Each structure stands twice: as C-alpha cells, then as structure tokens.
C-alpha cells in the first residue's frame, strides 16, 4: 500500500501513541493539531512534524486525517475541521461515536479504533493491540485494513453498533477496575500499608483470565 501523508487532529494519549506507531512504520506525519501548544509541540517534535493550535491553519495537503479528540470536542469542531479538505479520507478513533457522524461533512470517511488504554508517558506495542475498522466504501475499508495490518496482527471489521458495545465492555474491564484500584489504594494508605503489596494478586488475577473464563477465574 502507498503510505499516506497524515495530519493528526488531537495530541492526547491515544493520538500520541498512534502517531508514534505510524511514524515508526514509515508514515509521514505532516502536522499535529491541539488546542494546547505544549501537547502539539511535544508530539510534533517526536515525529518530525509541524504543529498548530489553530484549526484554520490545518494543512490541506494530507490524504489522511486522523481525528482523536474528546467526544464533545469532536462533534463541536467537526464542520470547522473538515472545511476545505473534503477530498481526503477522514478517520476518527472513538469507540462510542458512530461512523454516521461524518455524513454531510466528508465524502470519504471511516473509523480506526484501537482497543487499549493509552498514556503519553508509556508507549505500547501496537503489534498485539486489536484494531477495529469501519469505512463508508469498499476501497477505503481495504485501505484501512492494510494500514491497520502494518501496525497490528489483530485487525477486525466492526460496525458502529458492535464498536459501541465493545467500548462499553472495555469500560467495564478497564476503567471500573482502575477505579477499584484507587479505592484499594486509599484504604491501604489509611492504614499505612503500601499499594504494591497488592500487585502480585492483581497480576495473577489478570493472568488467570488468559487461561480461564472470567466466571471461572
């Protein structure tokens, strides 16, 4: 496949990891946009790209735009983001936003949803991350399949309804668990005990679901 010139709209946890993974695999990132200059500049410097904090300065020269914003910001800024760049392929990375959000704005569009928790400070190996794709036409579906396959050995097609429920399942499996960790840490701190005494238990609990069903683990 030809490796597209890419613009990233967003420089948060997911965008940072995805942009770096694409850069390491030979994709050219033209530009990074973020409302926060520090976030935009930090990511841009890591992937040898330009950056901007102004939407009207978004490059019109990319063939692929990857939008990775909060759900509310994405919906609010959508018309302004796309204006003058309708020719390109537009992709968002959200699990909970349907592909139909692009309709009426972009001519070519899709979704690239990595099922993983991300932090800027911790780079992850994309080779084992499930990537879920969806596109408005067969040509762009094949393109996203090829792009995703460069990053990961686990690429799946999923429609918006499937992806929404996948995202919900991920919230149960990740966000809720992290909240329980925080509650546990607070309780231990109250009694002057270190949180790391729980780490062997946490690790073994996580390992067991690789071999047993969640109900049996």
UniProtKB/TrEMBL annotation:
| Domain (DUF2520): residue spans on this chain | 129-216
Q: What keywords is this UniProt entry annotated with?
A: Oxidoreductase
Domain Pyrroline-5-carboxylate reductase catalytic N-terminal: residue ranges: 6-81
Gene Ontology molecular function, alphabetical? glutamyl-tRNA reductase activity
Broad enzyme group: oxidoreductase
* Stored InterPro entries: 6-PGluconate_DH-like_C_sf, DUF2520, NAD(P)-bd_dom_sf, P5C_Rdtase_cat_N, TM1727-like_C_sf
Known EC number: 1.2.1.70
Protein name stated in the entry = Glutamyl-tRNA reductase
